[in-house]
Specification:
By secondary structure, this protein is an alpha+beta fold. 35% of the residues lie in helices and 19% in strands. It contains seven helices and ten strands. Strands 1, 5, 6, 7, 8, 9 and 10 form a seven-stranded antiparallel beta sheet that branches. It has a three-stranded mixed beta sheet with strand order 3-2-4. It is globular, with a radius of gyration of 20 Å. About 9% of the residues have low confidence.
């Protein structure tokens, strides 16, 4: 009995079908957060004796604390749109802080998912992931400058790169939260697997609280209000996965 081998085109067609099938499974899992370790599970953890939290006024989107990239309409946006979401959140907060920033955002801090999504789709034209995401606070500045120019605005930035000391980071956080400004935070590689859901990820810092065990930081991501010890985020340890040359994690404020 002679069994004919499949032709090259038949083999290629089969590979494409399998690839598309796997992609659909991955997208389905991602949209349902089945393979993510949700850091918002930490939102109700308390560390030591609490004083009084210092928080900025942040977005309320149909009852959600800030935006969620999973609301965005296209897979590429949902998969890598964390920088886009943060840019939208910062823009809306700036509009709330001072009317001079009004041109930066068509939405206020109280908005709907539809309004947030519509603005995010527009922002994605400027602040969006490249082939490795948006792995630098300097790249974020460049991208946001293009957006600001498109609406006839110029803005300034305060940045703190990841190689700065923890004390410098804590002072930076206090300074800008006390002034009422949100802080974009980029975490790349990190030793702790407890926070892997916010590694290689952009999210927005919105407050802090001093406890007997140090500072907790309050932040928004995936539409949830979260808190963690700030030191556990800033001090990355000795991670297995390394960033590449040109990648710069850290903090950035638009003002």
């Amino acid at each position: 009995m002679i069994v004919e081998r499949p032709s090259f085109m038949e083999g290629l067609f089969f590979i494409i079908i399998i690839r598309n099938f796997i992609s659909k499974i991955v997208e389905w899992c991602y949209n349902r957060k089945l393979y993510r370790n949700p850091v918002h599970g930490f939102k109700n953890l308390f560390y030591g004796v609490h004083m009084m939290a210092k928080e900025i006024t942040f977005l309320n989107i149909d009852g959600n604390y800030g935006g969620d990239q999973n609301w965005l309409p296209e897979y590429s946006m949902r998969r890598g749109g964390c920088s886009t979401v943060v840019a939208v959140e910062l823009s809306a907060c700036l509009r709330h802080i001072d009317k001079k920033y009004e041109a930066l955002s068509p939405i206020g801090i109280y908005t709907s998912k539809e309004g947030f999504t519509e603005f995010s789709v527009e922002m994605f034209k400027y602040v969006y992931p490249k082939y490795r995401g948006l792995p630098s606070i300097h790249y974020f500045e460049e991208c946001y400058n293009e957006y600001a120019a498109s609406v006839g605005m110029q803005v300034e930035y305060a940045k703190l790169p990841e190689h700065s000391s923890y004390e410098e980071a804590e002072n930076f956080l206090r300074e800008w939260i006390d002034k009422g400004y949100p802080i974009a935070c980029l975490v790349l590689e990190h030793e702790s697997r407890l926070i892997w859901d916010i590694t290689w990820h952009w999210f927005t810092l919105t407050g802090y609280e001093d406890t007997e065990n140090g500072m907790d930081v309050i932040f928004g991501t995936y539409g949830e209000k979260c808190r963690l010890p700030f030191r556990s985020i800033w001090e990355k340890g000795n991670p297995e996965k390394r960033a590449e040359e040109g990648d710069v994690a850290g903090l950035i404020v638009i003002h």
